[in-house]
Predict the structure.
Amino acid sequence: MITTTTFALLLAGTTLVMTGCLNTKQTSMENPNKLSPEEIAAGKFTPEVMWKMGRVGSSTLSPDGQQVAFCITYYNMEENQGTSHIYTMPAEGGEPVRLTNDVANESSPQWSADGSTLFFLSDKSGSTQIWSKKTGVKLSSQHSNVADGIEGYGIAPDQQHAFYVKRVAVKPVKSADVYSDMDKSQALIYDDLMARHWNYWDKGEYMHIFVADIKEGSLENDRDIMENEPWDAPMAPYFDMSEIAWNHAGTQLAYTCKKMTGTEYAVSTDSDIYIYDLASGTTKNICKSDRPSDPRLRIMPEMAGYDKYPVFSPDDSKIAFRSMRRPGNESDKDRLFVWNSNDGTMKDLTENFDYNAFNVVWKDDNQLFFIAPIKGTHQICTVKYDDPMVEQYTSGDFDINAFSLNGDRIIFERTTLKQGTELFSINGEAINQITFINREIYDHIPMGKVEKRMVKTTDGKEMLTWVVFPPDFDPSRKYPTLLYCQGGPQSVVSQFWSYRWNLQLMAAQGYIVVAPNRRGVPSFGQEWLDQISGDYSGQNIRDYLSAIDDVSREPWCDRDRLGCVGASYGGYSVFYLAGHHEGRFKAFISHCGIFDFDSMYGETEELWFVNNDYGGPYWDKTNTTAQRSYANSPHKSVQNWDTPILIFTGLNDFRIPYTQSLEAFTAARVQGIPARLVVFENEAHQVFKPQNSLVWNREFFGWLDKYLK
């Protein structure tokens, strides 16, 4: 049995101790967030209704392919938090059954090799630890008791060993640690870059992997396999536990790490795959070699970009992983590489495949399955080690975001622009939906039609654009229309379902939404993706205008009521278009957008991003690409702004710091342009907290309604 998930197994720990009776009876699935009679009567998709949805994830198929375990998270708006529980159900479909009765959070289910036990994370004991429950047994067992809890885990297939991840203090950064007589001082002291990352300041602590023996249900002989090392595994800022993998014999652990610090870390994406051997206690880097390059054997002495997500073949002789060629380009092609331990050779299985590969799964020692973004969707593909010709396994206007595989059965997590995540099953050629977690909402709340539209760009290309209509769309009426600008910038506008930027939610409030796959997004080949780097203000901006101009010619689009919205790179797009839209738009909304390229270079943390996407630093006057980028920074055309603009930001956003939004707000108000600034004190680059989200949506739609209705 092999499983894979799109995002990390986010928490974990390790020690086996029998606790009391946790499950006197199995509990069927029940949504605590029922629709009110008023919501049913209104039949409208609102932010409040969206936050009542159960969120499905972390699905994993049992070794015999008969059962699937998965998580559902429900949010309590009054308490401003969510609770996640684990459910199991037959793989062919049926009623989901909750694993325990606990009020604690549960996550990261993992089947034992024989399928008799389900391991998981729970905070029942007061901190996040590893627990398990055997099939047919009412008692749950706690397996770890690590001080302050753990962040992630993995049980070896032989159940003799486990790994867990926890934060470890490595170097003094706090002034009170540097000066012992200054215990009330609260300064942080740095000599190099990466003082902060994503949403946290570096305080000298790093995520480390610990391995331990499992003895009579408890963890013993815990050891830090990265002792005193000043870097993270899994890597910051996402700390994805899928970057760590046991071999099937339980004797080796493969993990991803970027063993760099300071400025070197800030400008490079060169991470590698390491193998830790339990018996010898030694660590080997398989992505670096002293052997000379041999094109015939495909030996590569250096893998220069991101190398991540190792997965052992069933016989442990090979490791598949994702690899990017170019250092400093976080959006280079994600190639599917296989390292062969027998001769040390590397083989690119996607050399003739012009799309990314992720969520890699071995079916047997020769055949692999993976997910690829293809033409505005995410599909399962397959390839063989001995005959690397990729075949597309699924097709359709949907996204497959994670899957588990056993024999001919695949369980996958699927979304569309009309439906949140549900589980589907492939058994042979039959595809069936097996969960209906939000059936009550779909039964009472209609979703809008989604049109797949091909738009001609200014350079003669065809651009896939999704158009989402209000549920009660009447072609004889005229509707206010929104141009949705995608972030990333290298992020596909696919059949996604988002709880932050939900296109159905916009449509349900009476807006037509135009979502183009402009230049710079994946799933249309590497040339289409690469075009945006060094040319933010170029073809991709023209692509945006091609999309909105194309839809504006329709009789149901009100050209006098057009809006433009976006976050991150999409927020930059809004700021740029505000100075170059030639009167098209009547309202703008930018969330955490880049406004001033010069100051952004000095304020952000991952410098490889701006080096690649801008072309380099602003002071390099000989770099024509960089100088063109800085010359076209949105703040250089702010004198042309003439349209009301709403700006969102988070004080904990260190990727695009709040000062970018503050600069834009200042420029708008000094010029007398109607503007509003909404600052979230406890959010970073996105808005995650339930009540903050409702405030965000009220401000978002309040602004649009004021200027477009």
In short: The longest strand covers residues 205-215. The two ends are 54 Å apart (CA to CA). Residues 690-708 form the longest helix (19 residues).
